[in-house]
Amino acid sequence: MDFRLNEEHEALRQSVRDFAREVVAPVAAEHYEQHTFPYEVVRQMGKMGLFGLPFPEEHGGMGGDYFALCLALEELARIDSSVAITLEAAVSLGIMPIYRFGTPAQQAQWLPKLISGEAVAGFGLTEPGTGSDAGGTQTRAVLDGDHWVINGSKAFITNSGTDITSLVTVTAVTGTRPDGGKEISTIIVPSGTPGFTVAPGYSKVGWCASDTHELTFEDCRVPAENLLGERGRGFAQFLRILDEGRIAIAALAVGLAQGCVDESIRYAKERHAFGQPIGNYQAIQFKIADMELKAHTARLAYYDAAARMLAGADFKRQAAIAKLHASTVAVDNAREATQIHGGYGFMNEFAVGRFWRDSKILEIGEGTSEVQRMIIARDLGL
């Protein structure tokens, strides 16, 4: 196996790295502190084609692959995870369901603006009372003539309340299966639909410049043709979407972990203690060496999962491994980077302060670490 990047992937990585350092970095702290959504950054990412990386040119995409998206996420997260998760959720959770399961009419209506970055979409799966138990969906949709009538709520939904949010895809119980279980389907709910209410943004520990809301649906009516994919296949559809998304989150986590290494090296060369740079002390050298070790192995894990996915091979276990390992590494590296920075690491003006706050959600979002272990164990036959 050859993990070296080809020329196109290497050029993309360098382009996004430059963008992150020159455009994202100067405004990251301000958006984070003020809890504001970085519309101008998102607009420029759209112009670069980042939202269209894994989609074919016939839909307005860049004709790349999912691995290209992962490379972009890693480079963005080395600077700012809020921007990285905005792109990740917009593509893997917002656009991908419509691309994978939408009808030609749905794709023609929604994909152009989503792929260009002019609009973003949310992914309405998690509910306030279910969390990891996504199969415990309580939101319901009843077919009334030629409309679905939706009632229920969703929690922690990214990109669901921005000025450029165009829709949210929502999982809902639409009936009962022959075996007595819940029939779960997916329905497109456009922004502004009567009965669809977006609550004020959460006050979050991290990802402070990303957009996250609770959503409620009260007799929310949408056309019957807004059903996404086959009726009753909604849960299976989103399991596939989440498998892919875990590779993307792993890439994001690797970016954060590598950002911690970058910042620690810079600080260790600049900070003096007892008459010399702290990077001259073996205690600091070993901390940073271990951080680089963890970031490197986590990168190999998501490279492997992505390669399997693109080859059409089974990748569920490898995606779970990559997500579990990379998120753990992100938390570990953020803790060590904060320690290396001492008191300055506790200040929000330093990037590692943001990294420390942003890292923990990576062990929770898009499948907790416990869920990843369940997936791995089941795939091993346990």
Write up this protein.
Residues 123-220 form the Acyl-CoA oxidase/dehydrogenase middle domain. This is Alkylation response protein AidB-like acyl-CoA dehydrogenase. Its cofactor is FAD. Pfam families: Acyl-CoA_dh_1, Acyl-CoA_dh_M, Acyl-CoA_dh_N. The protein has 382 residues and is an alpha+beta fold. It contains ten helices and ten strands. The protein has helices spanning 7-34, 39-48, 66-77, 81-101, 104-116, 234-270, 282-310, 316-341, 351-359, 369-379; strands spanning 120-124, 140-144, 147-158, 165-176, 182-190, 196-198, 212-223, 227-228, 272-273, 276-277. Helix 3 (66-77) packs antiparallel against helix 4 (81-101), helix 4 runs antiparallel to helix 5 and helix 6 runs antiparallel to helix 9. 52% of the residues are buried.
Helix-strand blueprint:
Elements: H1 7-34, H2 39-48, H3 66-77, H4 81-101, H5 104-116, E1 120-124, E2 140-144, E3 147-158, E4 165-176, E5 182-190, E6 196-198, E7 212-223, E8 227-228, H6 234-270, E9 272-273, E10 276-277, H7 282-310, H8 316-341, H9 351-359, H10 369-379
Helix pairs in contact: 1-3, 3-4, 3-6, 4-5, 4-6, 6-7, 6-8, 6-9, 7-8, 8-9, 8-10
Features:
382 residues, alpha+beta, Butyryl-Coa Dehydrogenase, subunit A, domain 1, Butyryl-CoA Dehydrogenase, subunit A, domain 2, Butyryl-CoA Dehydrogenase, subunit A, domain 3, 3 domains, 4-stranded antiparallel beta sheet, 10 helices, 51% helix, globular, oxidoreductase, AcylCo_DH/oxidase_C, Alkylation response protein AidB-like acyl-CoA dehydrogenase
